[in-house]
TrEMBL record:
Residues 345-524 form the Enoyl reductase (ER) domain. InterPro entries: ER (IPR020843), FAS_pseudo-KR (IPR049391), GroES-like_sf (IPR011032), PKS_NRPS_Biosynth_Enz (IPR050091), SAM-dependent_MTases_sf (IPR029063). It comes from Acrobeloides nanus. Keywords: Fatty acid biosynthesis, Fatty acid metabolism, Lipid biosynthesis, Lipid metabolism, Multifunctional enzyme, NADP, Oxidoreductase, Phosphopantetheine. This is Enoyl reductase (ER) domain-containing protein. The keyword Lipid biosynthesis applies. One of its GO terms (molecular function) is oxidoreductase activity. GO terms for biological process: fatty acid biosynthetic process.
Length: 525
């Protein structure tokens, strides 16, 4: 069960929250009453995501002598024998001021869980955290597992489920009585546990200085923020800086916040409150989704957590999670997807990948120049072949594509939401089920054209038009030499020149080939 409960993403997020809400290059964590070395290893393994920090782990409990001494020494984890159930609890000097402690299925063993949690508070620094997992569902399954493991079953309290297990309401009442705030709560139908992050209620209320970062044109907030930071560096811990972004949806506040935390890593002064809504009803300019006078918002901010992100009516925090090897090729039905090579330069790794268009569609507003188009056909161009085979690197493509997941595909044909047949171009990612593009680069498909034909037109004709008309300043009656006239761009150039009544000379392969036959049949004159 340790493997099931602690390798999951829920625990990873809880661990990340503890790291994020601590200060300094060294985080001080403790595993309390661990039932096995495997469980301790899972706790410690989560720190591998945070390579910039060092972690000092300690093992605490009444049965630490049962843990393998050699393994503890290899992991550099000291142990301290400390019983939380004694009549008089005496904490040790070495087991104080932890940033976070971790408990898994411990409370269900305690007759007085409130007293137990109060004693755990003595291990924590002010505002320290507890990551706690308890069985809250599928209690019959938990009983079977206990029986199979040969564990003794002892009922502790008749008000609990089977005298042992808590409901979520009972747990949260227990947390409140013990003097903790619930900062994180997550469960999964496939698990029998619920994971909480609890915060020791600080002695002093937080004094908040707000700095709004919504001005992304003049950046008038930069100097006031610099002064605020300097003023707060030597201030007590309860004086914090709150960075807010509630009106502009793309301020870059997450990256900016990470930079500040790295620069001022020795302090934990920064809190961020921002709106990352994607749905249209939450992205109207006049809509203010975060009302700081709202009692619910005030209650949330009272928790004094580092990250407070609002998205489409819900509060939480945005996290990056590793996709495990077995999940990389997981199949999923979805409306929005694009084609990409999963391994650079390896065309055998070409696969469909879910597209972020599912979120961008929600943000499209009426009257916007951005259009969603369902792709029926997409053309392969020479650039796509070169990219897929790794013969040119992605950064060789002009433009700002550093954050693009995929660069394959430039031209397409399909239908708009209204059903209109269109063809168009995008900077990248046209080999897809849907594209979002500027309506300036969409054209109606003539009735006598098929959509398959239309998909081959935009890039060739735009290239030729740009070269001849925009840059070459082609005039009526000019004489022009076109090399490789049988190619796509060559045929487009010939057609444009003939429409200007120009005299056209072209080069092609002398021997009769399919290409020369196409050229002869297309331009008989």
């Amino acid at each position: 069960m340790a493997d099931v409960v602690n390798r999951d993403r829920i625990f990873t997020v809880a661990h990340d929250i503890c790291v994020e809400n601590s200060a300094g290059y060294r985080r001080k964590f403790a595993a309390v009453e661990v039932s096995s070395m495997e469980l301790l290893k899972h706790y410690v393994a989560a720190q591998e995501r945070h390579i910039l920090f060092d972690f000092d782990w300690t093992c605490i409990g009444p049965n630490v002598e049962d843990l393998d001494e050699e393994t503890l020494n290899q992991m550099r984890v000291p142990k301290f024998n400390l019983s939380f159930d004694d009549q008089e609890f005496k904490n040790l000097r070495e087991t104080r001021n932890f940033d976070a402690i971790f408990l898994t299925k411990v409370l269900s063993l305690k007759k007085d869980p409130v007293q137990y949690l109060r004693r755990c508070k003595e291990l924590l620094r002010d505002s320290g955290l507890i990551v706690l997992s308890e069985i809250t569902q599928h209690h019959e399954l938990a009983l079977i597992i206990h029986a199979l493991q040969g564990l003794d079953f002892e009922a502790c309290d008749e008000t609990r489920v089977y005298g042992k297990y808590f409901s979520t309401n009972q747990l949260e009442d227990t947390f409140e009585q013990a003097g903790y705030w619930v900062c994180f709560k997550q469960t999964d139908p496939a698990l029998i546990t619920t994971t909480y992050v609890l915060k020791k209620i600080p002695k002093l209320a937080r004094e908040i200085t707000k700095v709004n970062l919504d001005d992304v044109s003049k950046f008038d907030w930069v100097e006031p923020l610099q002064k605020t930071i300097l003023d707060h560096l030597n201030e007590p811990e309860h004086k914090v800086i709150q960075l807010t972004s509630t009106r502009v949806k793309s301020t870059g506040i997450l990256g900016f916040d990470r930079s500040l935390n790295r620069e001022y890593v020795k302090t934990s002064k920064f809190r961020i409150v921002c709106d990352f809504s994607t749905k249209k009803e939450y992205r109207e300019e006049e809509t203010r989704n975060i009302d700081f006078d709202d009692p619910e918002v005030q209650k949330l901010l009272q928790l004094d957590m580092h990250s407070n992100h609002f998205r489409n009516g819900e509060w939480g925090s945005i996290r990056d999670l590793e996709i495990k090897e077995g999940e990389r090729m997981a199949l999923k039905e979805c409306e929005h997807a694009f084609v990409n090579t999963l391994a650079y330069g390896d065309v055998s790794s070409v696969a469909w990948v879910e597209s972020p268009n599912q979120y961008l569609v929600e943000a499209l507003s009426e009257g916007s120049k951005q259009e969603l188009c369902s792709v029926y056909y997409a053309a392969l161009n020479f650039r796509d072949i070169m990219l897929a085979y790794g013969q040119i690197p992605p950064d060789a493509i002009p433009g700002q594509f550093a954050d693009n997941d995929c660069l394959l595909g430039m031209e397409f044909s399909g239908r708009l939401k209204s059903g209109k047949r269109v063809m168009g171009i995008v900077s990248a990612q046209a080999l897809a089920t849907t594209v979002i593009t500027d309506s300036t680069f969409l054209w109606d498909v003539p009735k006598h054209w098929s959509l398959a034909d239309a998909a081959t037109v935009p890039v060739a004709y735009l290239t030729a038009y740009y070269a001849l008309i925009i840059r070459g300043n082609l005039q009526q009656g000019d004489k022009i030499l076109i090399h490789s006239g049988s190619g796509g761009v060559g045929q487009a150039a010939i057609a444009i020149c003939l429409s200007y009544d120009c005299e056209v000379f072209t080069t092609t392969i002398i021997l009769p080939t399919p290409e020369t036959l196409v050229l002869n049949n297309t331009f008989r004159e």
